[in-house]
Write a structure and sequence with these properties.
It is a single chain. The chain has about 160 residues and is mostly helical. About 55% of the residues lie in helices and about 10% in strands. It contains 6 helices and 3 strands. The chain has a 3-stranded antiparallel beta sheet with strand order 1-3-2. α1 packs across α5 and α3 crosses α4 (about 80-90). It is globular and about 55 Å long. The chain starts with about 25 loop residues before the first helix and ends in a 7-residue tail after the last helix.
Amino acid sequence: MTADVPHQTTASRATDRPGDASPFALGLLLRQAHWRAAALMTEALRPLGIELRHFAVLIVLVDRGSTVQRDLAAATGSDKAGIMRVVDDLERKGLAVRKAVPGDRRVRAVEITPEGIELFDAAHVAAAPLAERLVAELGPGEPEQLTDLLTRFAYPAGGEA
């Protein structure tokens, strides 16, 4: 602690326990919720032979179509090396292909294959019962309310970070 910052004692220390009132509580709670959701979705994807990182790229490809690797990295929160490994995996599995971008020999765009589309659809079928398990403790209308709140939280109207 620096000398010019007054020492303040807080009644609450950051934990990830329900009811924590610290300024870190929301972030910790979101992290815990993410881990739980990721574990269930990983369970859904495992029989299909892919991981969440692979599925994240397939989501972008289905949404945007052919996408250059640097844009895939940005859209999935990956770095250049990480996205190359994921695309390598998807190519090996026949789920995506790299293609040259006209006008720039150095850049490669990634496209989902018909097999990738089939797997994408199968993943949604496999995930449906697990997604229901994820919100089983919520009451009527609460899953939709949670989705609405998280959407507004993640994508604020003013575009703030």
